[in-house]
Write a structure and sequence with these properties.
By secondary structure, this protein is an alpha/beta fold. Helix content is about 30%, strand content about 20%. Helix 1 packs across helix 4.
């Protein structure tokens, strides 16, 4: 039996005993098959008998044809056993092709366990042709795979790459079939853009390490740890006391005035009289706005004060996918949009963002907040994160957050809140008595709203996954979560 629950006998019509099926216990083999059919929403495993004429050619990973109810479907062999299941089975009809390699199958089995995902999703996400990739030669000659966090960086990174026999790609390139691969390089593995937004919601940096282990490859993680610049913290509370209720503070306005291009300076841009191309250039101040909703509002406020459009640019998170960007000053206008989120990763994301802004800023980073008394801002003002890391480690250990536990977020979507709430209540009841190792939150609404949809989440804390071969409570969880629930292991956010 698979780790995914078997449905009732009426639904599992493929498991009825075929007429004339041999019963010689010593020679009978059985295969768990991943059924590739849109009519099986559960995407679980189905058990078939291996007929005598296929015993010598059947192999895990191969593509097969088998009966499924009144139809004939294709699927992939997940595992083979001589143990007879406690229910009748039908035979596989034919082997259709090679399907997936043994290394692909091993990776899929690990992903299914790690991400509590269906076997079908863990196989099909490895099919080539997805994502942005650039190769310096044919796949047979590629020996090094370099992963970058943003698709927009692939060709830019390729233009500066002098290595031969290299493939550069975004997260899905981690599955690229490269028969002579020797090394995987993951640039900026801490970037959350490596977390895929589709089932099985894998993290490409984790998958890269596991693939390297399976294929006996070298793996090199290249984290970006830019030095954080001492930041200037702007108190928006004081701005309000002075009668300014906008996000364009007086220090921000003063910064834009310092960056303003005069008519004479504009004539000098591009000439040999300026020693550096970035000096007093267009966009010499970047106004970073995390919230898409606030960008237009801040643009209007800047226009009201007569800010010179040549002296600044407004940018959001897409700024970090650009290469070679520089500015004299960077002002993060809406830090509180992250600070106020009820999310345990909020401070971590602020620090990551400030590091990124420091990397592209020549002079000073300014942070606007209504909560300057928060200890985090003292650390950022000093340009020293030792205290932040100590506090973060202590808080996460005390509250049981990663890296000390595994988090799972379950999400159900429906057209109306009544349906979503009903399904959440039903699953909550199932989970309550599942295992004492689970810490389960009450159902709660998703922070981000999708028009026409109601979304309900349930957050679960469980013990870290043990070493291979030892039971994990996550396997129990996978059995009881209905297939119409979205399952994310170690999500970027619980919201």
């Amino acid at each position: 039996m698979s780790t995914f629950a078997k449905a009732n006998d009426d639904l599992l019509s493929s498991n009825f005993l075929a007429k004339g099926q041999p019963r010689n216990e010593g020679s009978i083999m059985f295969a768990e098959v991943v059924v590739d059919s849109y009519q099986d929403p559960t995407k679980r495993l189905f058990t078939y008998q291996v007929p005598e004429n296929l015993v010598n050619s059947v192999k895990e990973g191969k593509k097969v044809v088998a009966p499924f109810g009144k139809r004939v479907i294709e699927g992939y062999i997940w595992s083979i056993t001589s143990k007879r299941p406690p229910f009748p089975t039908k035979p596989i009809q034919a082997i259709k092709g090679p399907g997936f390699s043994q290394t692909q199958l091993k990776l899929a089995k690990w992903m299914s366990e790690r991400y509590l995902a269906s076997p079908l999703d863990c196989l099909k996400c490895q099919i080539g042709g997805k994502g942005e990739k650039f190769s310096s030669g044919p796949s047979e000659r590629i020996t090094t795979l370099i992963l970058v966090p943003y698709a927009s960086q692939v060709r830019l990174r390729a233009a500066t790459n002098n290595q031969k026999n290299t493939l550069i790609g975004s997260r899905s390139a981690v599955f690229a079939p490269l028969p002579n691969l020797q090394k995987i390089v993951v640039e900026e593995p801490e970037n959350w853009n490596y977390k895929d937004e589709r089932t099985p919601y894998y993290h490409a940096a984790e998958v890269a390490e596991k693939r390297a282990e399976i294929e006996n490859l070298q793996v090199e993680l290249r984290p970006q740890n830019p030095k954080i610049k001492p930041c200037r913290v702007i108190d928006l509370g004081r701005e309000k006391l002075a009668g300014n209720f906008t996000l364009v503070s007086q220090p921000l306005e003063d910064t834009l005035l310092r960056s303003k291009i005069t008519t004479e300076e504009a004539k000098l841009i591009g000439s040999t009289k300026l020693s550096r191309p970035t000096e007093r250039s267009k966009g010499s101040t970047i106004v970073y706005v995390n919230s898409r909703e606030l960008r237009e509002k801040i643009e209007e406020e800047l226009q009201k004060i007569g800010a010179d459009k040549n002296s600044y640019e407004i940018a959001g998170p897409e700024l970090f996918s650009a290469l070679g960007k520089e500015a004299h000053y960077t002002v993060w206008a809406d830090v509180d949009t992250l600070l106020n989120l009820p999310d345990f990763r909020a401070h971590e994301k602020i620090v990551w963002t400030v590091k990124k802004l420091s990397q592209i800023t020549l002079e000073q980073v300014l942070l606007q907040t209504s909560f300057p008394q928060n200890p985090l801002f003292a650390d950022l003002a000093a340009g020293n994160l030792e205290e932040f890391h100590r506090r973060e480690q202590e808080n996460r250990q005390e509250l049981g957050y990663p890296p000390f536990t595994t988090l799972v977020k379950l999400t159900f979507s429906a057209k109306n809140s009544a349906k979503a709430n009903l399904e959440a209540e039903k699953l909550s009841e199932k989970l309550k008595n599942l295992d004492s190792q689970l810490t389960i939150s009450p159902p709660y609404e998703s922070y981000s709203k999708i028009p026409g949809k109601a979304q309900i989440n349930i957050a679960i804390k469980l013990a870290l996954q043990p070493k291979a071969g030892r039971p994990w409570v996550g396997a129990k969880l996978a059995k009881v979560v209905p297939p119409d629930w979205k399952v994310e292991v170690d999500p970027e956010s619980l919201l």
